[in-house]
């Protein structure tokens, strides 16, 4: 029954599209139904490309920091292992436990930093779609459409009702790289996540 309902819904969508395609007026499709690829909309917009570039830079810095920390922890572990024969067993156990605790804390902090990078990207996308909604509404109104579907949810379509490229151009005109929008995203991230924690200092190996 579910499969039948999905087929009926798909056919209804196709029929709605076919009935809504009326004409080409001044290069604008007149249709009661439009579709858009929201992933492409974000990725190819000036704002989306700026966000992607900054996220990639953040991830690269995070990876470099992780590698540096890993090297320092490896050196400290080696030092502790080499000193073990000369240490009192109780003292060694205390230092080993402290080292393990420090490793766990560093891992928690670094995982939190990675999570914040992902959250920044997600918040930026939400903010972008919120800012894009009025533009999409205007395109829908000018096209005489009643609804905009996500392209990925449509089984069959006429490419003329895909407004993704047109929407990208209009959104670029409206918000560009979205410096103010990105600032709002960063402020929201700070309010939710607080300030970044610092990795606890490693023991001096000198």
Automatic annotation (TrEMBL):
Listed GO MF terms: unfolded protein binding
Keywords of the record: Signal
SMART domains: OmpH (SM00935)
Gene3D superfamilies associated with the record: Skp domain
GO cellular component: cytosol
One Pfam entry name: OmpH
GO annotation, biological process: protein stabilization
Disordered: region residues: 186-206
Span of the signal peptide: 1-23
InterPro entries, sorted: Chaperone_Skp, Skp_dom_sf
Domain of life: Bacteria
Family per record: Belongs to the Skp family.
Name by which UniProt lists this protein: Chaperone for outer membrane proteins, Skp family
Annotated source species: Salinihabitans flavidus
Lineage: Bacteria, Pseudomonadati, Pseudomonadota, Alphaproteobacteria, Rhodobacterales
């Amino acid at each position: 029954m579910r499969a039948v309902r999905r087929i009926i819904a798909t056919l209804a969508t196709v029929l709605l599209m076919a009935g809504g395609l009326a004409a080409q007026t001044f290069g604008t499709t007149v249709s009661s139904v439009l579709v858009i690829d929201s992933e492409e909309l974000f990725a190819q917009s000036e704002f989306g490309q700026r966000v992607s570039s900054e996220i990639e830079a953040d991830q690269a810095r995070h990876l470099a920091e992780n590698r540096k920390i890993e090297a320092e922890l490896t050196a400290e572990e080696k030092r502790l292992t080499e000193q073990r024969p000369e240490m009192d067993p109780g003292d060694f156990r205390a230092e080993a436990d402290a080292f393990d605790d420090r490793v766990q804390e560093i891992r928690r902090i670094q995982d939190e930093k990675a999570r914040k990078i992902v959250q920044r990207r997600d918040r930026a996308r939400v903010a972008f779609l919120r800012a894009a909604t009025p533009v999409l509404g205007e395109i829908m109104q000018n096209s005489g459409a009643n609804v905009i579907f996500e392209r990925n949810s449509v089984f069959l379509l006429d490419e003329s009702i895909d407004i993704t490229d047109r929407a990208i151009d209009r959104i670029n005109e409206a918000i560009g790289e979205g410096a103010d929008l990105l600032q709002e995203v960063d402020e929201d991230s700070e309010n939710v996540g607080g300030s970044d924690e610092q990795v606890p200092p490693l023991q001096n190996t000198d």
